[in-house]
Amino acid sequence: RGTLYIVATPIGNLDDLSLRASRVLARADVIAAEDTRHSGRLLQHLGIQKKMIALHDHNERARAGSVLDELDAGRNVALISDAGTPLISDPGYVLVREARRRGLTVSPIPGACAFVSALSAAGLPTDRLLFVGFLPAKRSGRRSALEALCAETATLVFYESPHRIVDTIEDLVEVFGDRRELVLGRELTKTFETFYSGTAQEVLETLVSDPNGSRGEFVVMVHGAAPEDDESEDGLIEVDRLISALIEELP
Ligand code: SAM
């Protein structure tokens, strides 16, 4: 049976397509894409012409069957999305889950992913993180989602669209307080790549005062809440210091 390759494509800069990704795309029998017109341009750029199957959020359940049929018939399929890594706030979950359930080989071809790129350059803790994807589009839903995350101590990461970014940062200030540390990664890997960082209030002000500030694509990263047992941790550090001082005094 064929192999299902999950191929990451660039998030803006075409040079980020890996050599391996272009080889896999060139050798695949079929390419399943979120938007065949959009991906058609990337494939044209690579000089690749292939049978394509459209697989997006609204038809994934129905179309996954056609992709599985191709795999069953021994053909290799490459799954791509409009940008970055498939399944990361993108279609593919239904297909990959079913392919695995049937014992098919599913192989990742790694590459660009907006939130990993953003975190790698943000300067926020990356040892523990919670990727939340897109927050609800409506303000009330968004606020409740943020309230549920307010005490989370891991770094929080969201995706947001340009027309909601200011509203979302306003909600963040409201729910997390104006002093929580925030970093926004905008238009990563593209000409106008920008990082905004500071307290939530500072980032909001910068965004609003920059005429192009809310244009483009955004990754929103929020420093986790201070652990609740902060005080006891401080206490332990104090005890440590005291013991060290006493040891130094020992004859
Ligand atoms: N699968 C993609 C990935 O691996 O990152 C994400 C797809 S999701 C539908 C699109 C969202 O990713 C955008 O709304 C934005 O939040 C984020 N994004 C994608 N490209 C970006 C870029 N170049 N700079 C900043 N954020 C980006």
Describe the protein's architecture and organization.
The protein is α/β, with parallel strands linked by helices and 251 residues long. Helices cover 41% and strands 20% of the residues. The chain contains 9 helices and 10 strands. The strands form 2 sheets. Strands 3-2-4-1-5 form a 5-stranded parallel β-sheet, sandwiched between helices. It has a 5-stranded mixed β-sheet with strand order 6-7-10-8-9. A hairpin with a 7-residue loop joins strand 8 and strand 9 (194-199). Helix 6 (139-149) packs across helix 7 (165-176). The structure holds S-adenosylmethionine. The site of S-adenosylmethionine (SAM) has 24 residues, from helix 5, strand 7, strand 8 and strand 10. It catalyses: cytidine(1402) in 16S rRNA + S-adenosyl-L-methionine = 2'-O-methylcytidine(1402) in 16S rRNA + S-adenosyl-L-homocysteine + H(+). Catalyzes the 2'-O-methylation of the ribose of cytidine 1402 (C1402) in 16S rRNA.
Work out the helicity level.
40-55%
Low-confidence stretches: none
End-to-end separation in angstroms reads 75 Å
SS elements, strand count: 10
Radius of gyration: 23 Å
Strand residues, percent: 15-25%
Overall pLDDT score: 93
What binds here, in terms of ligands, is: S-adenosylmethionine
Q: What shape does the CA trace take?
A: globular
Count of helical regions:
9
- In order across it, which strands form the biggest sheet? 3-2-4-1-5
> Which class of secondary structure composition applies to the elements?
alpha/beta
What string gives the helices and strands in order? EHEHEHEHEHEHEHEEHEH
**Major β-sheet annotation:** 5 strands, parallel
